[in-house]
């Protein structure tokens, strides 16, 4: 098992980091968060079109870079670090793998090259807190009819393509691609996370053509769960990156803040807490890369690892975010300083793709009742 | 054959050797002699060291020119894993093999290598570590044990006290960090000496630990001697050598240690299943969290052994000791909580006694080898570049 980065991986990360340091500054993030509903269109255009973010995990046969989960993790960590207001997670970590895993060859050759070129911002119509299929599909004379509601869809307001996993009457699942203006009812939902927009989605007898269906002949819940693993991994990567960004800005603040004639960074009570955050970050990040390597090869305990990763990533972001406010003292409680944006993200991501309690319960079932101890 | 295949072949070879040899009269040693049980069955464990040596499994990572296998890092990791998986006992030869040998290979004279390496490799001579003192724990630079040159014999005459000396009562030799320059302070003026433990002027007193066992000792020196050819490096180089030696302590044994942790977690799960604790949702969540931490620890160790040198990777490496020791300490408490009141009753159930010993011993995990507080200072100061702790006047 090789968990150190290759030269290519390092330079990918450095390039993304450079772009986001320049273009996703605190001021740009605040502009997008406060005035543009959490979406920075010019940053997206740059990332998607110029830097080719969206090509990362599209297979080479469909004009992508064909890279794996490790690169996906590096990319989303960087997005998290700067709280980049772009739908990278929804498009690259969730949407693209659904099409790659579940799509027919025809659908893939139709959509993936365009996705790789950055032509789509994708939202996936699964309830964000519990990614179970909530839409029903029925065959009609010239296509399909979709019904149902998904109350909370990430990155829906900026999406140009909505992927809809839907259930047929016989229990089989299908995957549909719908344009937002194709008769969907989109409601707005404001959450405490100002850096990721959400929307509510309603299908009331929405008629779509036969070519809207992306899969060949239906797939199982299990196949859908497998196709969502990169999304779970990517969410954790984003959380870990956000924790790193939040720790960085905290270290910078405490190194400059002087009380009692010394920087507050020189107090052991503060040094130790920062060091403990470093250990928690190292723990979560190591599991991120280990799970990414295992996701690439489809190792046997990958679901457990991704559940464990979800727990550690949510914990570390929460811990760093709350410590950040505390260590900033009074100004940590003001709108003007940035910690609250991370604090918001920490709580808002804690229940995305399920909760830590559910993840621990699944791990326990394997460790205690299964054979994985 | 690919590298992976040959590694798997090597794994089978180690496993087969262990299955064939850790049996018969040695079967009694399985899972014994580890932390918390370090003074168990000393005579049989000496013989086991010689059994290992006969199979050329002592010092397998030392270079071939010293008569050893010269295994790669990956192979050594496999060896450690299979040794632990088979229930291999705690190694009496650990300090000689892991610390003294590499130090002599790096800094020793040819004569010293000839004199000491074979005894370690053949499982005949066992070593103890003489660093800490009553007033030099976390502040190791504060050691006061004195070494004075005897102009007539050229010997160094040592007076002072070392403490927390693991298994000194079962060892033949000790390496000693002592102050050889009168009036020097801190890391300056220190000497690194190799001394036979069985000599007039050395007394060994066991220290009884909170779990009842006595793996550690106080070692008193009162005019004990180290001959001139038993100085490693030059007088005054002691600190540099001592610090290099500590860097050997980390690394390879880590993944074997983790297999031990995996077995401990499995024992706790087994008991939880038997006594119904596994029905308790809070216990289930804690067991799951322990699994998550252990899995992360595995990848931390792999990343660390792969030796990335970026600032981020160095920083992660600094956190490793703090991570595993606190994880293990929590596991010690979890084991007791899974047993419930049953766990506090002393009886001769082997698994329960093992978990009780772990409960006590893991309290020292976050103290020895750099306390939690020192680890956090190191991460903050060396890793994050935060201001250094002010020092009091010596």
UniProtKB/TrEMBL annotation, chain A:
Entry similarity comment: Belongs to the acyl-CoA dehydrogenase family.
One Gene Ontology MF term: flavin adenine dinucleotide binding
Keyword list, A-Z: FAD, Flavoprotein, Oxidoreductase
Cofactors: FAD
Gene3D superfamilies, per the entry: Acyl-CoA dehydrogenase/oxidase, N-terminal domain (1.10.540.10), Butyryl-CoA Dehydrogenase, subunit A, domain 2 (2.40.110.10), Butyryl-CoA Dehydrogenase, subunit A, domain 3 (1.20.140.10)
Domain Acyl-CoA dehydrogenase/oxidase N-terminal, chain residue ranges per copy: 6-118
Residue ranges of domain Acyl-CoA dehydrogenase/oxidase C-terminal in the record: 226-367
Superkingdom per UniProt: Bacteria
The organism's taxonomic lineage, starting at the top: Bacteria, Pseudomonadati, Pseudomonadota, Alphaproteobacteria, Hyphomicrobiales
Protein's UniProt name: Acyl-CoA dehydrogenase
TrEMBL record, chain B:
Coiled coil: none
Residue ranges annotated for the Acyl-CoA oxidase/dehydrogenase middle domain, each copy included: 128-221
Lineage top rank: taxon: Bacteria
Protein's name according to its UniProt entry: Acyl-CoA dehydrogenase
GO cellular component: plasma membrane
Domain Acyl-CoA dehydrogenase/oxidase C-terminal: 236-383
GO MF term list: flavin adenine dinucleotide binding; oxidoreductase activity, acting on the CH-CH group of donors
Keywords from the named record: FAD, Flavoprotein, Oxidoreductase
Taxonomic source organism: Nitratireductor aestuarii
Lineage, broadest ranks: Bacteria, Pseudomonadati, Pseudomonadota, Alphaproteobacteria, Hyphomicrobiales
InterPro entries xrefs: Acyl-CoA_Oxase/DH_mid-dom (IPR006091), Acyl-CoA_Oxase/DH_mid-dom_sf (IPR046373), AcylCo_DH-like_C (IPR036250), AcylCo_DH/oxidase_C (IPR009075), AcylCoA_DH/ox_N (IPR013786), AcylCoA_DH/ox_N_sf (IPR037069), AcylCoA_DH/oxidase_NM_dom_sf (IPR009100), Mycobact_Acyl-CoA_DH (IPR052161)
Co-factor requirement: FAD
Pfam families: Acyl-CoA_dh_1, Acyl-CoA_dh_M, Acyl-CoA_dh_N
Stated family: Belongs to the acyl-CoA dehydrogenase family.
Keyword set includes Oxidoreductase: yes
Name of the gene this protein is made from: fadE30
Entry keyword Oxidoreductase: yes
SUPFAM superfamilies assigned to the protein according to its UniProt record, in alphabetical order: Acyl-CoA dehydrogenase C-terminal domain-like (SSF47203), Acyl-CoA dehydrogenase NM domain-like (SSF56645)
Domain Acyl-CoA dehydrogenase/oxidase N-terminal: 8-123
């Amino acid at each position: 098992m090789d968990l150190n980065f290759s030269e290519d991986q390092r330079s990918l990360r450095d390039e993304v980091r450079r772009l986001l340091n320049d273009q996703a500054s605190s001021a740009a993030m605040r502009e997008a968060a406060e005035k543009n509903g959490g979406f920075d269109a010019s940053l997206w255009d740059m990332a998607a079109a110029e830097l080719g973010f969206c090509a990362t995990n599209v297979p080479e046969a469909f004009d992508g870079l064909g890279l794996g989960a490790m690169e996906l993790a590096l990319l989303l960590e960087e997005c998290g670090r700067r709280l980049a207001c772009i739908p990278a997670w929804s498009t690259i970590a969730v949407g693209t793998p659904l099409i790659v895993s579940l799509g027919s060859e025809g659908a893939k050759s139709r959509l993936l090259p365009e996705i790789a070129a950055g032509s789509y911002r994708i939202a996936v119509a699964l309830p964000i807190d519990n990614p179970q299929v909530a839409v029903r599909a029925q065959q009609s004379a010239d296509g399909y009819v979709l019904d149902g509601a998904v109350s909370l869809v990430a990155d829906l307001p900026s999406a140009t393509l909505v992927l809809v996993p839907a259930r047929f009457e016989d229990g089989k699942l299908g995957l549909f691609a719908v344009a937002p203006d194709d008769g969907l009812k989109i409601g707005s939902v404001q959450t405490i996370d100002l850096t990721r927009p959400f929307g509510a989605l309603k299908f009331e007898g929405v008629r779509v053509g036969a070519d809207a269906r992306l899969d060949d002949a239906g797939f199982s819940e299990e196949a859908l769960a497998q196709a969502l693993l990169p999304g779970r991994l990517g969410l954790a990567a984003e959380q870990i990156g956000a924790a790193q960004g939040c720790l960085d800005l905290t270290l910078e603040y405490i190194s400059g803040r002087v009380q009692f004639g010394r920087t507050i960074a020189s107090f052991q009570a503060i040094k130790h807490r920062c060091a403990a955050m470093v250990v928690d970050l190292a723990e979560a990040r190591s599991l991120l890369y280990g799970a990414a390597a295992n996701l690439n090869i489809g190792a046997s305990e990958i679901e457990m690892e991704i559940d464990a990763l979800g727990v550690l990533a949510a914990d570390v972001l929460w811990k760093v975010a709350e410590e950040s406010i505390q260590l900033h003292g009074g100004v940590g409680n003001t709108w003007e300083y940035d910690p609250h944006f991370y604090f918001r993200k920490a709580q808002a991501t804690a229940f995305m793709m399920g909760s830590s309690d559910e993840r621990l319960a699944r791990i326990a079932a394997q460790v205690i009742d299964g054979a994985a101890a | 054959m690919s590298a992976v295949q040959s590694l798997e072949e090597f794994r089978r070879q180690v496993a087969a050797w262990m299955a064939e040899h850790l049996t018969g009269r040695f079967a009694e040693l399985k899972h014994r002699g580890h932390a918390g049980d370090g003074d168990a069955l000393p005579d049989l464990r000496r013989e086991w060291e010689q059994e290992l040596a006969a199979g050329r499994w002592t010092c397998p990572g030392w270079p071939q020119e010293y008569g050893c296998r010269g295994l790669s890092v990956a192979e050594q990791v496999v060896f450690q894993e299979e040794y632990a998986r088979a229930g291999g006992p705690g190694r009496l030869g650990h300090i000689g093999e892991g610390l003294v040998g590499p130090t002599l290979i790096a800094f020793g004279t040819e004569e010293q290598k000839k004199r000491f390496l074979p005894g370690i490799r053949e499982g005949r001579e066992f070593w103890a570590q003489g660093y800490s003192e009553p007033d030099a724990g976390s502040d190791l630079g504060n050691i006061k044990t004195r070494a004075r040159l005897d102009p007539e014999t050229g010997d160094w005459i040592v007076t002072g006290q070392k403490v927390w000396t693991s298994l000194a009562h079962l060892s033949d030799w000790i390496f000693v960090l002592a102050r050889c320059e009168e009036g020097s302070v801190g890391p300056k003026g220190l000497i690194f000496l190799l001394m036979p433990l069985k000599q007039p002027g050395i007394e060994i007193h066991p220290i009884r630990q909170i779990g009842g066992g006595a793996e550690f000792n106080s070692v008193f020196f009162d005019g004990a001697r180290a001959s001139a050819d038993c100085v490693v490096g030059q007088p005054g180089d002691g600190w540099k050598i001592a610090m290099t030696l500590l860097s050997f302590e980390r690394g390879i044994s880590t993944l074997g240690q983790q297999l031990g942790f995996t077995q401990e977690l499995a024992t706790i799960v087994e008991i939880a299943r038997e006594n119904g604790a596994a029905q308790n949702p809070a216990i289930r969540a804690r067991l799951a969290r322990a699994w998550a931490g252990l899995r992360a620890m595995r990848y931390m160790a792999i990343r660390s052994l792969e030796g990335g040198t970026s600032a981020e990777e160095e920083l992660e490496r600094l956190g490793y000791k703090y991570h595993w020791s606190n994880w293990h300490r929590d596991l010690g408490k979890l084991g007791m909580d899974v047993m419930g009141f049953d766990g506090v009753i002393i009886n001769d159930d082997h698994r329960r006694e093992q978990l009780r010993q772990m409960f006590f011993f893991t309290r020292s995990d976050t103290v020895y080898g750099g306390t939690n507080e020192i680890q956090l200072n190191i991460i903050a100061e060396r890793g994050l570049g935060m201001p250094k702790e002010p020092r009091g006047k010596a």
